[in-house]
């Protein structure tokens, strides 16, 4: 059984034991509750939004699986409410959060790897192509998430500008949360799950400070580790990469740090079984590299299932590329520590941008390559979409 995790603070919670927040509608004769900064929320997520008081249901102690009421009475104003919050960070949760399992996926990668561009393009595909392909009903939760996505899509796809460095002074920002509704077959009801993605600041990885700051990420259900192929040994020189595009941290160091964090947090002595999608970004720049299989640039799978065989082929191609490039230390690091990882090769932009001016190349449009595959693999792993030709 997968544990429930708050999609905002990444703490383990029990979705049948959520707290409530008052809605500010008091019972006649009682004084209305006031909104204020919630200190727990401020501390856990940095959110200063004013909100009504939170409390837990009087029936909180009932042993599971007795039904816990969906609504509760505010102890201060006696108003009724059905709005749930996370007991740890007090962030209001979407109304259907308690109805089914919701995967929380963290993304990590060193500075300049392409995380913000990737998340923007992926999120845009979740709302578009992925939604259609899997006949799901998808929406972004919350004003802040919608605003971030609109801005980011408009900048990259409309304005053809690339993002500035992602700043996170205290190491956190609010994750992007999607509601994903789909029925498993025509007869069944729609089920809602929530997908939470976090765009971390790259400065966390590749530096010694990194390990500590990354700890809060380690409790998630799955990881997308984005690696910069330009951070592989002498590859930048081989492909004649411009100085402006050269990365700061070696890919293998990034992998070692992620492993260290996961190991420590999960307290594992043996192998780490958390699903980890190991994603090489920017593969557009490797188009002419003989070590990378042409498979990566072939058309992607279609249809509303995850194709495990195709997934394995790409995995093997990337693995062979690593070995041929003399980066077998990266592969060795995954083989030695993870039981549940798979390689992916993606490009969010589809072709190299104008690195020096931080924008798309003249005349270029965004045409993503395989960006959705890591997510589709993970959705299949969580049983949210079907798989063919083997296991996810
Ligand atoms: N060739 C190529 N370059 C890319 C692609 N995506 C991003 N880049 C380059 O990588 C740079 C960094 O991208 P970001 O998405 O800002 O990277 P980040 O990982 O969010 O960086 P931080 O926020 O600083 O941690 C961009 O300015 C581009 O130059 C891609 O699909 N192909
Ligand atoms: Mg960024
Ligand atoms: Zn109240
Ligand atoms: Zn929380």
Give your account of this protein's structure:
The protein is an alpha/beta fold and 392 residues long. It folds into two domains: 1-95, no CATH class; 104-388, Rossmann fold (3-Layer(aba) Sandwich). The protein contains nine helices and 18 strands. Strands 11-12-13-10-14-15-17 form a seven-stranded mixed β-sheet, with helices on both faces. It has a three-stranded antiparallel β-sheet with strand order 6-3-9, with no helix packed on it. Helix 2 packs across helix 3 (143-158), helix 6 (251-266) runs parallel beside helix 8 and helix 7 crosses helix 8. The longest helix is centred in the N-terminal third of the chain and has 19 residues, at 115-133. It starts with a strand and ends with a strand. Bound molecules: guanosine-5'-triphosphate, magnesium ion and zinc ion (2 copies). One zinc ion binds next to loops.
């Amino acid at each position: 059984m997968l544990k429930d995790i708050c999609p905002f603070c990444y703490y383990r919670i029990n979705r049948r034991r959520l707290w409530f927040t008052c809605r500010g509608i008091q019972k006649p004769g009682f004084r209305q509750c006031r909104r204020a900064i919630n200190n727990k929320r401020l501390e856990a997520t940095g959110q200063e939004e004013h909100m009504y008081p939170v409390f837990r249901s009087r029936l909180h102690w009932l042993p599971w699986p007795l039904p816990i009421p969906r609504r509760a009475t505010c102890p201060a104003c006696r108003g009724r409410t059905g709005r749930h919050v996370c007991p740890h960070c007090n962030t209001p949760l979407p109304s259907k959060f308690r109805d089914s399992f919701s995967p929380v996926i963290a993304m990590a990668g060193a500075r300049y790897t392409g995380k913000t561009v990737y998340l923007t393009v992926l999120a845009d595909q979740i709302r578009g192509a992925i939604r259609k392909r899997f006949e799901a009903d998808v929406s972004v939760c919350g004003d802040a998430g919608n605003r971030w996505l609109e801005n980011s899509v408009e900048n990259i796809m409309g304005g053809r500008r690339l993002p500035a460095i992602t700043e996170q002074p205290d190491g956190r920002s609010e994750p992007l949360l999607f509601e994903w509704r789909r029925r498993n077959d025509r007869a069944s009801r729609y089920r809602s799950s929530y997908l939470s993605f976090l765009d971390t600041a790259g400065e966390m990885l590749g530096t010694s400070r990194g390990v500590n700051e990354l700890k809060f990420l380690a409790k998630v259900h799955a990881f997308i580790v984005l690696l910069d192929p330009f951070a592989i040994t002498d590859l930048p020189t081989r492909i004649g990469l411009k100085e402006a595009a050269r990365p700061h941290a070696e890919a293998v160091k990034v992998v070692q740090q992620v492993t260290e964090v996961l190991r420590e947090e999960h307290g594992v002595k043996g192998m780490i079984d958390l699903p980890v999608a190991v994603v090489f970004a920017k593969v557009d720049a490797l188009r002419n590299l003989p070590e990378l299989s042409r498979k990566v640039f072939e058309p992607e799978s279609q249809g509303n299932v995850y194709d495990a065989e195709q997934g394995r082929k790409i995995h093997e191609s990337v693995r062979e590329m690593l070995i041929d490039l003399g980066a077998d230390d990266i592969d060795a690091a995954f083989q030695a520590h993870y039981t549940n990882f798979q390689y992916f090769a993606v490009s969010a932009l589809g072709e190299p941008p104008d690195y020096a001016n931080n924008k798309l190349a003249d005349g270029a449009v965004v045409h993503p390559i395989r960006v959705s595959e890591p997510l589709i693999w993970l959705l299949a792993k969580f049983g949210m979409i079907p798989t063919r030709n083997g296991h996810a």
